[in-house]
Amino acid sequence: xxxxxxxxxxxxxxxxxxxxxxxxxxxxxxxxxxxxxxxxxxxxxxxxxxxxxxxxxxxxxxxxxxxxxxxxxxxxxxxxxxxxxxxxxxxxxxxxxxxxxxxxxxxxxxxxxxxxxxxxxxxxxxxxxxxxxxxxxxxxxxxxxxxxxxxxxxxxxxxxxxxxxxxxxxxxxxxxxxxxxxxxxxxxxxxxxxxxxxxxxxxxxxxxxxxxxxxxxxxxxxxxxxxxxxxxxxxxxxxxxxxxxxxxxxxxxxxxxxxxxxxxxxxxxxxxxxxx
Length: 276
Prior knowledge:
Layout: E1 7-11, H1 16-27, E2 31-36, H2 39-46, E3 53-56, H3 62-76, E4 81-84, E5 90-91, H4 99-127, E6 130-135, H5 139-142, H6 148-167, E7 173-179, E8 183-184, E9 190-191, H7 208-213, E10 217-218, H8 219-231, E11 236-238, H9 241-249, H10 253-270
Parallel strand pairs: 1-2, 1-4, 2-3, 4-6, 5-9, 6-7, 7-11, 8-10
Helix pairs in contact: 1-8, 3-4, 4-6
């Protein structure tokens, strides 16, 4: 599918993967709507794009999540592609994670994109079809330590994705699941112990699997993948063979659990003095 003139709505567009995706889709000729909580960052990004629609949106608010889609359709006349990219990450040990943090992660990482997808479904069905790309993570299959809220909420989002892939197919809507793997975006996770860098569980260069887990891609790589997926929709796309390998390893506890134990030990060492 050619992207020239297609309307693409990208959530989490203020930084990282979302920001780079907006630039790549704009370069491909798409008409881009960018959504995130921080308008000042969206406005800066907008200065690099061709007539974008800027949508200050908090996905934790269902009304805002749905309105974001409606505003896109009102402005451009349609919506061809919805990229559910926005997510929040909260770091805490599984024995101490609070109910409130779990609820917040599920609200942003599951309920927000679900509301946006339901609203996009209404418009896409009416116009005869469309494409949704849900950015997932192989981390939930591995069980990345200290990231329980993120892993659990993204696992639920994958379940949602796989459910609607069949339900919505007759409406001409393709729902894609994309697994980018570990991507270095400079994002900082939320934590009661202060800002947490993305490489918390990474022990770089020690053993084959450790090298896999620390083999970060960048936002540009992922953005180009998303453009490829939009041009040639499919139901499942891994960013590299190594993400496929992670999914395979996840089903072999004898391999997975020792790897996760080492990841947990690495995280504890890095967090010394923060009482993890």
